[in-house]
Recover the amino acids of this structure.
């Protein structure tokens, strides 16, 4: 098969796959998780049901794929923040702040309950923990992060502490939570020079 032809087919498959994921997420958002059917997804996407079944066996499989794509996007965003210029604590603040806002904005739904039990979430959590741990190690070396607690423990602390962002009512409360978490990482009281 000519290269151009195979690249065109692959691009078409990606476009159809993305359309299926986006359409399903929109339908679930509008009608609720239990109300969405494969027929609705096919119709809204503009493809035949047989074609849809070639991509996914059921609605849950589509939602898992959508969630994997969403998590991957979040991890890429956080990795980009980790790699930006600046000191370790500054970059850590950007990563933790963005993570906390993600938790705040994506919580408490029936969809979350379904999707947060799959193995891909555990993989994403490990990846995120390693990303934060790496910044903490840099912060310890730079003298910006406390060294009396291991970076592994601190990374776990960060993830659990910022998980509370899901239950906060405002972005201002999320920012305060991030600041309290950062204060704990530095080992300094707020507003007190180190």
């Amino acid at each position: 098969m000519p290269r151009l032809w195979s690249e065109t087919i692959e691009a078409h498959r990606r476009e159809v796959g993305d359309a299926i994921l986006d359409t399903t997420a929109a339908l679930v958002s509008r009608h609720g998780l239990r109300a969405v059917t494969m027929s609705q997804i096919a119709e809204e996407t503009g493809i035949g049901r047989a074609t849809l079944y070639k991509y996914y066996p059921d609605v849950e499989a589509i939602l898992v794929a959508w969630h994997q794509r969403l998590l991957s996007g979040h991890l890429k965003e956080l990795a980009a923040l980790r790699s930006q210029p600046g000191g370790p604590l500054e970059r850590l603040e950007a990563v933790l702040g963005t993570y906390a806002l993600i938790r705040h904005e994506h919580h408490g739904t029936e969809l979350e309950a379904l999707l947060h039990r799959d193995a891909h979430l555990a993989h994403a959590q490990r990846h995120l923990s390693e990303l934060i741990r790496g910044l903490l190690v840099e912060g310890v070396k730079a003298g910006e992060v406390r060294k009396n607690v291991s970076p592994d423990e601190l990374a776990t602390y960060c993830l659990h502490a910022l998980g509370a962002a899901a239950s906060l009512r405002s972005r201002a409360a999320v920012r305060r939570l991030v600041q309290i978490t950062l204060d704990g990482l530095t080992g300094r009281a707020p507003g007190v020079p180190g």
In short: The first helix runs from residue 3 to 31.
